[in-house]
Amino acid sequence: MLSELQVENFRSIRNLRLDQFGQVNILGGRNGSGKSTVLEAVELFLAPEPLRAAFHNSRRGIDMLPSQNTPQSSGVESPWESLFCDFVNNEPARFTGIYSQNQISVTYETNFPIAKTNQANLLAQNPSYVFSLQQWINEARLLLISSNRGAAVHLESLIHPVPDGTWGWTASLPPISPCAAIWAGDDTGQVQQKDLADLFSVAVQERRESFVVEVMREIVPGLNKLVSLSKNKKARLYADTGRPKLIPVSLLGDGAVRVLRILLAGLAEEGGVWLVDEIENGVHYKFLGALWRGVAEACKQKNRQLICTTHSREAILSAAEQDIADLRYLRISRKETGHVAIPYSGAELRDAEDMLVEIR
Amino acid sequence: MAEKKFEAVQPNLILVEGYDDQFVVQQLLAAEGITNVQVHAVGSKVNFKPFLNAERKSEGFEAIRTISLIADADNSRESSLKELRDAFHEAKLPVPANPSEFAPGPPSVLVECIPIGRDTGALEDVILEAIEDCVGTQPCWGDIRGCLETNLPQAAKFNEARWNKIRLQLVLNCSLRGYKTGIVYALQSSEYAGVLTAPCLASLRALLHKIQAEHHRLQETSAT
User: Fold this and answer.
1) What is the dihedral of CA B115, B116, B118, B124, to 10 degrees?
2) A167 contact partners, CB below 8 Å, separation of at least 6
3) What pLDDT score was predicted for residue B15?
4) pLDDT > 60? residue A154
5) Which segments of chain B belong to CATH 3.40.50?
6) Which residues, at least 6 apart from A129, have a Cβ–Cβ distance to it below 8 Å?
């Protein structure tokens, strides 16, 4: 479990210390306060890999990678500068924290050559780990095209020529990457709609499908069961809602699919951190309780930690009403001297609501 | 009707118990030409603590330079003052040693109970006194009280602590026109124009100027 994290020189954050994580964590704050940046920081801290940084740049619409034929002087943005606070990359972006009682430090910098390191056992074996983005830039200039969603790939295995003659990647990550943090919940994340059937099969294997259906039934009345069917050698997830035919889950509505995706992503792995940006997106306020009860139970069953963001007061208060044992709300705010995170417990959230004091 | 969320919009905050208290203090501030003080009613004395706890963590808290808690003395000025100090203490804010004196912050904090300088009582006592200064005392109070004391059933024993509140509401509600009620009406109507300047409110007016003076002191300190 992540218990502390210090973020330095990363995107908009000069310095931010978060030291009161619970099992279910909600990040709030104004636009631009750095909520999503904290999620990125958690992922780059727990699953350190330059390509994840590329993925997040891509997710934010930063078309960072020139093609093979683009001259360096053609005005293309430096691929990595947006990772560093004020675009100044002579200082590293640094993440220091405590995960499962181990003190870990991860540094990203642009001019620190180091041999590629196998990241699989990173957390267990390398408490302090430095990645070379410089090396990646050198490769990137030669190897990559502009990326879009699904840009996070396993670098070693997937770099290859693409049809237009430049080099690049076309494959996306497997449904769940073997690392401590995963990014779930939106289409740009690692858990995409096509992966739902695979994720559901993990839940079935562990006999958790009735729990999933129970949560989803609060959102989709009449849902009897979820079924994974294979068509054209591809597994697809269908819903039995009592109608004559099973219907593809994608027809249940965006909000329902999103809740399902978040839930299944949470149940698919044991331990680790599960990251969801704007968790309430597309979910009707009446179903927020079901969402929170589902994710809290998934955290408990799989010994996971959820860190998510929201702008929604209804979502925050709904979480506070669910009697989640280890709930934290962290309001991120940007000050002249740096960023601060103000922690609230569930009881403090309820008190603030009773007193009509703003919590966002 | 949905209640409005509190938002700190002035650097000086006075917290009071009820809406009548809020209105009286707001009117006094306006009459004294003090514009940088915000008055907020938390509902009751027991809400000072949870309100401060919540507000201390809110986005706008750092902009608040002074917080003053003003409550009724009720049956014991000392125990009411202790309750106010405890609210600051539990919210991990400075705790003033003496009433009407600021403890340094940030934010600077102050506690006081109304009527200022008396061991028991409430805002209604002072307002009633101010109204009686303006329009005179009703000669029938003794008869009404005597009647109630004699004729109320034993279980509904005459409550001394509420007598002034009852008298105030009776005076004001008898003058009602339209939907306005109580203290709000009194302080807005021409019949009671002299209430805000009544001598019995002098110490409350002085307290508001003390808050203003603390604001200026803090401003000067931060400038230097």
Assistant:
1) 0
2) A68, A142, A143, A144, A145, A159, A160, A161
3) 97
4) no
5) 12-120+200-223
6) A48, A104, A105, A106, A107, A117, A122
Instruction: Name the 3-class secondary structure at A11.
Output: coil
Tens-digit pLDDT profile for residues A103-140: 777 777 654 333 333 333 332 333 333 343 333 333 33
Tokens standing for A137? 């830039």
User: What sign for the dihedral angle of Cα A86, A88, A91, A93?
Assistant: positive
Q: pLDDT tens, B152-204?
A: 887 778 787 778 888 888 887 776 666 666 677 677 777 777 888 888 889 99
Query: Which residues of B are less than 8 Å from A311 in CB distance?
Result: none
Number of CB pairs < 8 Å for A and B? Answer: 44
Q: Cβ of A352 and B54 within 8 Å?
A: yes
Distance from CA of B50 to the nearest CA of A (A): 6
> In the CATH hierarchy, which fold is given to the domain comprising B12-120+200-223?
Rossmann fold (3.40.50)
pLDDT of B181? 63
Strands ordered across the beta sheet of A93-99: A13-18, A2-10, A93-99, A102-109, A128-132
CA distances from B223 to A113, B65, B106, B218, B220 (A): 49, 14, 15, 8, 5
Structure tokens at A28: 């709030």
The size of chain B, in residues, is 224
**Fold (CATH) for A2-354:** Rossmann fold (3.40.50)
pLDDT at B5: 83
**DSSP state for residue B178 in the 8-state scheme:** T
What is the model's pLDDT at position B182?
66
Burial classification of residue A179, based on how many CB atoms lie within 10 Å of its CB (0-12 exposed, 13-18 middle, 19 or more buried): buried
Q: What's the pLDDT score for residue B150?
A: 87
Q: Are B44 and B17 in contact (CB under 8 A)?
A: yes
Give the closest residue to A302 by CA, choosing from A190, A208, A209, A228: A208
Query: CA nearest A305: which of A42, A8, A102?
Result: A42
Interface of B with A in 127-186 (CB under 8 A): none
Contact residues, chain A, for B47 at CB < 8 Å: 355
> A-chain residues within 8 Å CB-CB of B4?
356
**Could you tell me if A18 and A341 are in contact, meaning their C-beta atoms sit under 8 angstroms apart?**
yes
Global pTM value:
0.78
B58 interface with A at CB cutoff 8 Å: yes
Is the peptide bond between B107 and the residue preceding it cis, with omega within 30 degrees of 0?
Answer: yes
- For chain A, how many residues are written? 360
Window 4-33 of B: residues touching A by CB (8 A cutoff) are 4-7
> d(Cα A8, Cα A97) in Å, to the nearest integer?
11
Judge contact between B117 and B203, C-beta under 8 A.
yes
Interface test with B, best of A35, A357, A358, A359 (most B CBs within 10 A): A357
Angle ∠(A257,A263,A203) on CA atoms, nearest 5: 105
